[in-house]
UniProtKB/TrEMBL annotation, chains A, B:
Belongs to the HypE family. This is Hydrogenase expression/formation protein HypE. Pfam families: AIRS, AIRS_C. One of its GO terms (biological process) is protein maturation. It comes from the Bacteria. Residues 181-326 form the PurM-like C-terminal domain. Residues 57-168 form the PurM-like N-terminal domain. InterPro entries: HypE, PurM-like_C_dom, PurM-like_C_sf, PurM-like_N, PurM-like_N_sf. The gene is hypE.
Length: 354, 354
């Protein structure tokens, strides 16, 4: 029987970047520098040769004559229901979007629920109905699932994992590594909306706002972009860690620089106000229905036009450029004419936002 | 934007089978009758038309020229480490086996961790190393992942979801519905071992035993069975709810009866003793490295021979028959010569066993 060899736990030493926090802290789940360290210095070395390098948002694998995208996400957002959505539609759209960012048309999803003892069946029915409605809207089938129950005090109502398979468009070769100097950086609409919507109803923090989560499936928008014939280089939905984390990840993956023009960032006044109130940078706030695109300069005009024509891209805007200078770094020109480094967030700015 | 329509939560009424427990109880996660009711009466109606009927252990989908198996499972076993394994190898082997039970060769897995704030990185490294080792042993690649962190008191150390894709053997058409009267029922080895191993080290319950979990990847054994040229009708690994739950599920899916001969059940003495101590029926105790096969009578001899030749089938045994009588029911001939109904367990006999 293939047994797990005995592992000498005592001999495992936290690598330097993790040593300051020998236990898991909320920041390890923030999608920023601490998350990256946990993956790079703990998970990947521990997984060993079984891990395919990267463990990116979506893997692309070839089976027979098909190129498939494959992606997983767990959702632990708190509260379960917030203005504009629930954990249920977030769980569907989140995985649909990870597939879409690889240029794939989503086909099927699995849904796995971890339920806490004592949770009202009515609340679960509400969430499950949102899962079904969002799947129907996104055109994906729910084909397999799992349900586990944990005792009170060892869960939090409902956690959902969704994992999806999509078929990659044969015209597409979309990955962070392809971002290249000269590329135009386009965002598909207003940023910071999901994070502010969830925080506005967080216990102990309620504040009045009309902002509703932007949770939405983006594969139709991506298809419209590819249909222009453009060679889209990189796509990513700026969820945890926001636009700042996503641009830094792409800059590092492709070893290019990114320059932003802060004046062109579409940030709704309500988001700006809420971020001011909470001491947050809108660039670091999560989105659940937006994408960032890196597009060659010759293709940018038609891609932007196609986005503006799509219901989920009506507020699309060019927000920056990819440059050869400062590889791995994102630099913003501020409204006052200065420049600032837009860093990868360290840890958790808004815990359990998705 | 495709929005989730407002759901009138107040109007949702627990269907009759769920009405006795308007909140989630541990039994809903036991893999027995209550789990089935939750899926049938809450999840499937709530998912609506987006759900493909069944939501079985593994879905089989066709993409291009390939038939793919697709399966998901979350693991919440307590404690994280137990005699013979950890949550890490359980998470790999569990999903590998769900793919294998559809006659598929597992290709890739996703791994999604929900970590509790305060968990020692060393414990997570230990679990992640077990994931990597088990994946290497099973020949599956870990190609994509996710990590979320929840605050202390809202998780329990480590929960893992694994979701897998496999390629279905073109010779195989293996599904519960194909079980047919006359089929011989074969088990691949000793039963009840995993459940007893986990319970033996459960806090507040420690008892001395030499039993170690049987967690193991079964796709090699399944390939050996298919390689005989036999038309294997149905395969299932008897995890939560044990052999009793699995045989009842197959009997109901195919509307056939199953008769067991209790004297032929391979139950180790230690398992029998522990079950006596705990008041458990070994038929209801979870296994993580065993399978049940329904094989046409003409094929049974060579399938059994192939199993006995395989390291994971050396204790394989014929334990019963599929019959036309009492469709949907499992009946056992007891050692004393009587008969008893082996029912689907109601709820949770051993909570958080996987």
């Amino acid at each position: 029987m293939p047994e797990t060899p005995a592992i000498d736990i005592e001999s495992w030493v936290c690598p330097a970047p993790l040593r300051d926090a020998p236990n898991i802290v909320m920041g390890h789940g923030g999608g920023g520098a601490m998350s990256a360290e946990l993956i790079e210095h703990l998970f990947l070395p521990a997984f060993g040769p079984a891990a395919e390098a990267g463990l990116g948002d979506a893997a692309v694998i070839t089976v027979g004559d098909a190129r498939l995208a494959f992606s997983t996400d767990s959702f632990v957002v708190k509260p379960l229901t917030f203005p504009g959505g629930t954990i249920g539609d977030l769980a569907v759209n989140g995985t649909v979007n990870d597939l879409a960012m690889a240029g794939a048309r989503p086909l099927v999803l699995s849904t796995a629920f971890i339920l806490e003892e004592g949770t009202a069946l009515q609340d679960i029915a509400h969430v499950a109905q949102a899962v079904g409605t969002a799947a129907l809207a996104a055109g994906v089938k729910l084909v397999t699932g799992d349900t586990k129950v944990v005792d009170t005090g060892h869960g939090d109502g409902v956690f959902i994992n969704t994992t999806g398979i999509g078929v990659v468009d044969p015209r597409a070769d979309i990955r962070p590594q392809r971002a290249a100097p000269g590329d135009v950086v386009i965002v598909s609409g207003d940023i910071g909306v999901h994070g502010v919507a969830v925080m506005s109803c967080r216990e102990g923090l309620e504040f009045g706002t009309t902002v509703a989560s932007d949770t939405a499936p983006l594969h139709g928008l991506v298809a419209a972009m590819i249909d222009t014939g453009a060679d889209v280089h990189a796509l990513r939905d700026p969820t945890r860690g926001g636009v700042a984390a996503t641009l830094n990840e792409i800059a590092r993956a492709a070893q290019v620089g990114v320059t932003l023009d802060e004046r062109t960032l579409p940030i709704p006044a309500e988001v700006r106000d809420a971020c001011g109130l909470l001491g947050l940078d809108p660039l670091q706030v999560a989105n659940e229905g937006k994408l960032l695109a890196f597009v060659p300069p010759g293709d940018a005009k038609r891609v932007l036009a196609a986005m503006l024509d799509h219901p989920l891209g009506v507020r699309a805007a060019v927000i920056g450029r990819c440059v050869a200078e400062h590889p791995g770094m994102v630099v913003a020109r501020t409204a006052l004419g200065g420049t600032r480094v837009v860093d990868l967030p360290l840890g958790e700015q808004l815990p359990r936002i998705c």
